[in-house]
Amino acid sequence: MADKTKTKKAAAKACCSPNLHRQQEAQKPKKPKAKKASKPPKKAAAKKSATAVALQHAAVGIYVRIGCIRTQINSSLPLQILLYFNGWYFAFFWICEILIFVFKGNVLPFPGSSLANEIVLLFILLAVETVRICIGTEGNLTEKIPYLGVSVMLYIPVFFVYLYYLKWQTYVLLVEVFLNVIPIIFLALEFIFSVIAMITFARA
Fold first, then answer.
1. Angle 196-199-202 (CA atoms, 0-180°, nearest 5)?
2. How many CB atoms lie within 10 A of CB 111?
3. HEC per residue, 127-154
């Protein structure tokens, strides 16, 4: 019985000894540690950021230079304003003239085919004046001298048509005097600014 108690005490001491715990922990399989992601060196990151900033500055400089080149506009603003309002006024003028001819045809006696001829001339004026305003606007905005040249050439027939309705048609009403004076003023101003615009485009 004494031997048994001695063996039990020895086993208890062996279990409680720190050396045994260390041996057991050493025998256990160790878990692999996760490798930390390698950080890029600070110098390389600084170089990359410096090159990116330099490229941004170069792109901004090129954009500013291109913008400065594109902002050199030589188109005539007064001519563009005149052509714009002339287009709207011509639409008003043409409708008024049609209504006046309807009134004349019902009230006043016309010799022969003079009424038909004057109405046909009004439709010819519609075509020529529309082409003149469109070509003049295109030539001024795109700074093309040939377009403005064609527009200036069309001033002559348009001017004589307005002059015909102002003085030489069969019956000239008082309202037609005002209706035809205004486009003649438009034509005179547009002719002056068209010539100035063509000179400016040629110098540029």
1. 150
2. 7
3. HHHHHHHHHHHHHHHHCCHHHHHHHHHC
To which residue do tokens 């027939």 refer? 157
User: What's the DSSP call for residue 40?
Assistant: P
CB atoms within 10 A of CB 174: 7
pLDDT at 195: 94
pLDDT attached to residue 33: 53
Structure tokens at 96: 């008024």
Asked if 72 contacts 132 with a C-beta cutoff of 8 angstroms, the reply is no
Residue 32 CA, chain-centre distance (Å), reads: 63
Neighbours of 66 (CB within 10 A): 10
**Contacts (Cβ under 8 Å, ≥6 apart) of 191:** 152, 155
pLDDT at 73: 80
Identify the burial level of 58 via C-beta atoms within 10 angstroms of its C-beta, where 0-12 means exposed, 13-18 middle and 19 or more buried. exposed
Would you kindly state where each structural domain of the chain is located, as residue ranges?
Answer: 77-203
Tokens for 160, please give them. Answer: 């004589």
Nearest C-alpha neighbor of 157 from the set 199, 114, 187, 194: 187
pLDDT under 50: residue ranges of the chain: 1-2, 4-5, 12, 14-16, 18, 20, 37, 59-70
Q: What is the pLDDT of residue 204?
A: 77
CA distance 1 to 28: 37
Single pTM value for the model = 0.64
Rounded Cα–Cα distance for residues 58 and 63 (Å): 9
